[in-house]
Amino acid sequence: MLDKIKAVAKNIKFELKVWKLIFKDARTPWIAKLLLALAIGYVLIPFDLIPDIIPGIGHLDDVIIVVLVVYIAMKLIPKEVVEDCRARVRYEV
């Protein structure tokens, strides 16, 4: 179980590095950059559509919204940009 948690944490760290490079890349469309910024902002701001006081559902909306916005942003980014950024992060490690 602990190994799975470590693997997920490592994967999240890897993806965050990839997203950082994608955000800085000039080939990334501005709308995708905006969506990635909105996803990060939504995680960081104290405003919620559904209050976190409601057990389960309060946190679930955060996850769904962020994942959906990141998914849409990644679909808007050319595949060669994503592949290039992933390769650059792999090379760093």
Quick summary:
The protein is mainly alpha-helical. It contains four helices and no strands.
Structure explained in plain terms:
The mean pLDDT is 86. The protein has helices at 2-24, 30-44, 57-76, 79-92. The two termini are 24 Å apart. The chain has 93 residues and is mostly helical. Helix 1 crosses helix 4 and helix 2 runs antiparallel to helix 3. The longest helix is centred in the first third of the chain and has 23 residues, at 2-24. It has one domain (2-92).
Helix-and-strand structural type: mainly alpha
Describe the sheet with the most strands.
none
Count of distinct strands: 0
In sequence order, what are the helices and strands, one letter per element? HHHH
How many separate structural domains?
1
Mean pLDDT across residues: 86
- Number of continuous helical runs: 4
Helix percent band: over 70%
The fraction of residues assigned to DSSP E strands is: under 5%
Ranges with pLDDT <50 over ≥5 residues?
Answer: none
**So what's the overall shape?**
flat
Alpha-carbon Rg, integer: 15 Å
Span from first to last CA? 24 Å
